[in-house]
Specification:
The chain is α/β, with parallel strands linked by helices. The protein has helices at residues 7-34, 37-57, 67-78, 98-108, 118-122, 144-148, 154-159, 169-180, 203-206, 223-233, 267-284, and strands spanning 111-114, 125-126, 134-135, 184-190, 237-243, 290-294. The protein has 2 domains: 7-88, no CATH class; 98-294, TIM Barrel (Alpha-Beta Barrel). The radius of gyration is 21 Å and the shape is globular.
């Protein structure tokens, strides 16, 4: 997956893994045991070191979520000391029912993961037309914008008119899940292309100069609300997927992103954007059983 310059780089990477992975594990173990600010500072230092090491020693392809980019994102703010987040570490009730929650997931075994968005209408072709578009052989259509290197607003302009979810489609999903014996479902509320299946209330989602709006549910509908309602009606536990990667927001992190951020980007704006989205997902759509916040992968 990662392009190394030569054998020397390969050996360097191996050395890096041998040294830093045990270090980071020790750091996290210490934090969970003691949870004091010095430990968070130590983690921050190790992550920064990992980031600097990668930037100096490894060349990576811009087509993928390169390891140095991942470390840059983490060391830039996701695992740093944050006075607003510290009170939630070890929140009341989390540890007490942890085993119960793990046991539920272990017993559930079988669930449905639904990737659904503008990429669905492309069907693996770009331009999104089986007669005139190029067929991309990759198995996951949600990366079509990346594979075809499509800029905005072209991507949204060509896929929005084709994205026409039928009314009551989520009821069909729920029926399939129920008849198959599934216990839970997970829906992509926002994937890497940055479009939201829920009607986000953030200012960028409602109106922005890049894509117009990130909200893609048909007028008068909210697909996440429909999905949650349909699944609960047949006894299927509801789960959400939310991508931390974002290929359109101008202040996002440059992970697997082939398009530039704005000139004077501010990652704090993007973090506020994420927090607002998650707050809405956790409050407006009832109780959920599973949540996946994806930093890299599919």
């Amino acid at each position: 997956m990662y392009r190394l310059k030569n054998k020397s780089d390969f050996y360097t990477l191996c050395l890096f893994l041998m040294i830093f992975i045990p270090s980071i594990l020790v750091c996290f173990t210490t934090v969970y045991k003691n949870q004091n600010e010095n430990n968070f500072s130590h983690i921050q230092y190790v992550l920064k070191s990992m980031h600097d090491f990668c930037r100096v020693n490894i060349d990576y392809s811009p087509k993928i979520a390169g390891f140095p980019n991942i470390m840059a994102m983490i060391s830039s703010g996701y695992l740093v000391k944050d006075s607003e987040l510290l009170p939630y570490a070890g929140a009341s009730g989390w540890e007490e029912d942890k085993q119960k929650r793990l046991e539920w997931f272990k017993n559930a075994k079988f669930g449905m993961f639904i990737h659904f968005g503008l990429y669905s209408s492309a069907g693996g072709y770009w331009p999104p037309n089986p007669q005139t578009g190029k067929r991309y052989s990759q198995d996951y259509a949600e990366w079509i914008r990346n594979w075809a290197n499509v800029p905005e607003p072209e991507y949204g302009d060509l896929t929005r008119p084709l994205f026409l979810p039928e009314k009551r489609c989520t009821e069909h999903w729920a029926k399939v899940a129920q008849e198959a014996g599934m216990k839970y479902a997970v829906l992509t509320t926002k994937h890497h292309d940055g479009y939201t299946l829920f009607n986000s209330k953030t200012s960028y989602s409602i109106d922005n100069p890049i894509t117009g709006s990130t909200n893609i549910s048909p007028k008068g509908r909210d697909l996440v609300e429909e999905y949650a309602h349909s699944m609960r009606n047949v006894g299927i536990k509801v789960g959400f997927y939310y991508s931390l990667i974002d290929w359109q927001h101008p202040d996002a992190y440059k992970l697997s992103r082939r398009w530039p951020l704005k000139k004077f980007y501010n990652h704090s704006n993007y973090l506020d954007y994420i927090y607002a989205h998650l707050n809405q997902l956790f409050t407006d759509y009832g109780k959920y059983r599973c949540f996946m916040g994806r930093l890299f992968g599919f």
